[in-house]
Fold this sequence. Notes:
The structure is a single chain. The protein is mainly alpha-helical and 141 residues long. It is 43% helix and 9% strand. The strands form two sheets. It has a two-stranded antiparallel sheet. α1 (57-63) packs across α4. It is elongated, with a radius of gyration of 17 Å.
Amino acid sequence: MALCPGPSTGTRAGPVVRNLILGATIDGDFLPDVPENLFHNAANFGYISGVNDMDGHFFAGLDVPSINSMVQTSSEDLKRLLGDFTKEKGLEGKDRAISTYTSTWGTQVSQETIKKTVVDVETDFIFLIPIQVALYLHANA
């Protein structure tokens, strides 16, 4: 994917990834159509895809700058971010996401855990979920 800044409005509302224009590329060449319309052309070809657990760190640092500093990151910062990412799913989607990402926290959550969870959310939303969709589309082409 080629990342290009979207139109500037002077302020940014929500996660930075929502303010980028994404153009699908392969080895630097832009694709002629959206990937989901091209899978039928590649159904006979296998491919490898992957994501690392820190791939979203750059974006997470823009959306929640406190993760890269000694300033505390609150669970409310995480909840706000999840709310931005699940806006289309409503309050139930947000609540489910919060429950999923905090299910292993326990009663005394550390700053390290909160900050890592913010990165996990960004990585999942920007990288992991699109890869899972691509694999599904490829398997069903």
